[in-house]
Amino acid sequence: MALAQKLLVDIHTHVYLPRYAALLRARSAVPRILSAPAGERLLILDHEPSGGRPVGPQYWDREEKIGFMDRHGIDVSVVSSANPWLDFLQPDDAQRLATELNDDLEAYCAQSPSLSGGMKRLYGFGLLPLVPGVPIPALLESVDQISKLPHLKGVILGTRGIGAGLDDPSLSPLWGALSSANLVAFLHPHYGVGDAWGPRDNGHVLPLALGFPFETTAAATRLILSGALDAHPTLKILLAHAGGALPQLSSRLASCIDHDPVVASRLAHDARWYLGKLHFDAVAYGPEELGFVSDVVARSAQFGDKKTAGFGYTVDRKLGSRNMLFGTDHPFFPPLSNTDKWRSVVENLQAIDAVSGWGDAEKDGVRGGNALALFGLA
């Protein structure tokens, strides 16, 4: 086994557990898995081009996941159920299935191989029954269940909460429970930002490349503006896809808040300060993008005092790397040839290696050391 700080840890990798896949096969409306002459296809959004995407064992088979990891040198993966989670279910069904799928995911991880030091190859993010009509006590029961499953280290969250977004005041007990249980909340998009793509058919490109990150940007900003990070200072939030556009727009956001006294009064700090309290996956595909996120995170501490925010700050890119973690988005975006490695692995690792200003310690941290610390695996 490699030294702990040298492990490659994938924190953004998905699974459709067999129980969940069976549910999707039984459905006649999106989301669903349907049979086709060339094999099964997955539809998770309305009006998907080309009749959805082909799916196979790599979406639910643990041995396929381990084989992918072995092929690409990934030591440990923190696996999450893929979108749309339980959003389409009625409250009672969502509560029941969340409990069952959390138990399934615990078994999926617990029965995975171990590294020589005893660490498992697989850990997981549990599911909450986040659908309209589910009472808050039911969410807290799910948090309690997940906290007692030893191989589940967090929860995966969509952006809609129980229907009114993550800034819904009724969710405050949830943030407190996650914080107390030391569980990481992985914020992941599903819906995009509406129909803004024009009449031309551009396939999945605009909804996935732009819509998903913009959805994350809006949801994370609403969470910040709600004051949740002030009320629950130890809450651990991980943002998918390098935080979307939030790092790029954080200074503009801060200026707009400053000019809106009602909103400004809700926050204890300059808006840029909160980016240092967030964690970001490194699924960005380019060193310039990763370096920029690292810069924004590194400077965030200098905005804690609203009176001096924006004056004389400096940036040490190495400090910002501590909040960034490698991911692959497997099993989505497979290689175009059976002999190719997955570009989501190769390009994201190359990007980490090429970030100017990061030394070996920072790169090793992003590849795995930061994840081991965040999830308490070190």
Description:
The chain has 378 residues and is an alpha/beta fold. The chain has helices at 18-26, 62-72, 91-110, 136-147, 172-181, 205-225, 228-231, 246-258, 261-264, 287-299, 317-320, 343-354, 360-374; strands at 9-15, 32-34, 41-43, 53-54, 76-81, 122-126, 152-157, 184-187, 236-239, 278-281, 324-325. It contains 13 helices and eleven strands. 43% of the residues are buried. Helix content is 39%, strand content 12%. The chain has a single domain, classed as TIM Barrel (Alpha-Beta Barrel).
Top keywords for this entry?
378 residues, alpha/beta, TIM Barrel, 3-stranded antiparallel β-sheet, 11 strands, hydrolase, Amidohydro-rel, hydrolase activity, ACMSD
CATH topology: TIM Barrel
Q: By CATH's scheme, which homologous superfamily applies?
A: Metal-dependent hydrolases
Overall morphology: globular
Strand proportion: 5-15%
Number of separate strands: 11
**Which regions are unreliable across 5 or more consecutive residues at pLDDT < 50?**
none
- The percent of residues in helical segments reads 25-40%
Mean pLDDT: 93
Total count of domains: 1
**What's the helix-strand series?**
EHEEEHEHEHEHEHHEHHEHHEHH
Instruction: Profile the largest sheet.
Output: 8 strands, parallel
Question: What is the topology, as strand order, of the major beta sheet?
Answer: 1-5-6-7-8-9-10-11
Query: What is the CA–CA distance across the termini?
Result: 13 Å
The number of distinct helices, counting runs of at least 4 residues, comes to: 13
Radius of gyration: 20 Å
